[in-house]
Amino acid sequence: MKRITLADGTGGEKMMKLIKQYVLKNLNSNAKNIDVGLSDLDDSAVVNGIVFTTDSHTVKPLFFPGGDIGSLAVAGTVNDIAVMGVSPCALSSAFVIEEGFPVDDYEKILLSMKKTSKYAGVPIVTGDTKVVEKNVVEKIIINTSGIGMRSRTLDENIKEVKRYRRFDEKWIKDSNLRDGDKIIVSGSVGNHGIAVLSFREGYGYESEIKSDIKPLNKMIEKILKVGGVVSMKDPTRGGLANTLNEFAEKSKTGIMVDEEKIPIKEGVKSACEMLGIDPLEIGNEGKVVIGVVREKAEEVLKALRKTEEGKNAEIIGEATKNVNGVVMKTVVGGRRIVETPIGDPVPRIC
User: Fold this and answer.
1) Mind giving me the DSSP string for 127-161?
2) What residues have CB less than 8 Å from 135, skipping those under 6 apart?
3) Domain boundaries along the sequence of the chain
4) Nearest Cα to 206, choosing from 218, 192, 217?
């Protein structure tokens, strides 16, 4: 009998196989009122013009440098809505708590959620609480869901895209990339995964590397006002490598990236070299990967760099018909294939 493993939930190829073979097979719907549905495998769905998403959080440890399970739950759901190009409106929050969990820690998590929600400008308006026996869950699991609504900013962004190429979609989706579109990453990658792993295992890197958890809806709003954005995704489980491969597969185009242009902090590089981990496969919680028409790429980059969250943004490559999948130009002048990771090398980071 087949059984679910931890690797089935860490993002990447193994989790996607599970979703395609079982979830899509049994739950997919072709209802006419669904613009973006389960089979699109985007960060959110769109039903009757309302953007909707849900996410469950099981990070270990619950508190780590730069954040905690509460800030992670709020920021992650806000970002999943925002990358669709819409304004997040409200969140729900459901808790599954192990009996005996310290009330002081519970309140600390709630206050963190309140602070992050206030920063994003997205209120938590409903929820649920369940308490279970010891050893049934890992102390506490938080599920957050959210809704968002279309804004004039999205319509103006799409109007700007159409100035430069054909664009038939109504929403920002992973599948919207086309030959010549530029790829931008909003900042250094790998921070969150390394911060959590280092703190959990006591490697010592947590003194210089902190999680990048942040709601990005305000930053995204600013680049949509510039216009020309066609695809966006926050590179969580499976990291940048997984996101780029999802873009390429869904858009049916190759992607070429430049290794020298990918921002990675020295502390993250050192930790990855010591642990034998590829920093491109590590999850992030405060970054976004953006596809933008060539003609608007520099303007979008400039707008990003004016924000605190995007000050280290870089144009790292472009969509191209000249390669298959994702290919990287290395610092030594060669090329290598960036494959879809089997899963995030750092488990339990979100």
Assistant:
1) EEEEEE-TTSSSSEEEEEEEEEE--HHHHHHHHHH
2) 98
3) 6-148, 153-337
4) 192
Q: 333, exposed or middle or buried, with CB in 10 Å at 0-12, 13-18, 19+?
A: exposed
Percentage of residues in the chain having pLDDT higher than 70: 99
- Looking at this protein, which amino acid is placed at residue 62? L
Q: How far apart are CA 154 and CA 225, in angstroms?
A: 8
Q: Which amino acid is at 236?
A: T
What does the pLDDT look like over 55-72, one tens digit per residue?
999 999 999 999 999 999
- The b-or-e profile of 4-26 (16+ CB within 10 A means b, else e) is eeebebbbbbbbbebeeeeeeee
pLDDT in tens, 277-336: 999 999 999 999 999 999 999 999 999 999 999 999 999 999 999 999 999 999 999 999
Superfamily of domain 6-148: PurM-like, N-terminal domain (3.30.1330.10)
Task: State how beta strands 254-258 and 326-329 pair.
Answer: parallel
**Considering Cα of 99, then 105, then 107, then 112, what sign does the dihedral take?**
negative
CA–CA dist 82, 221 (Å, integer): 8
Please state which architecture CATH assigns to domain 153-337: Alpha-Beta Complex (3.90)
Rg (CA), the chain: 19
What DSSP element (H or E) covers 270? helix 266-275
* 128 token code pair: 């649920």
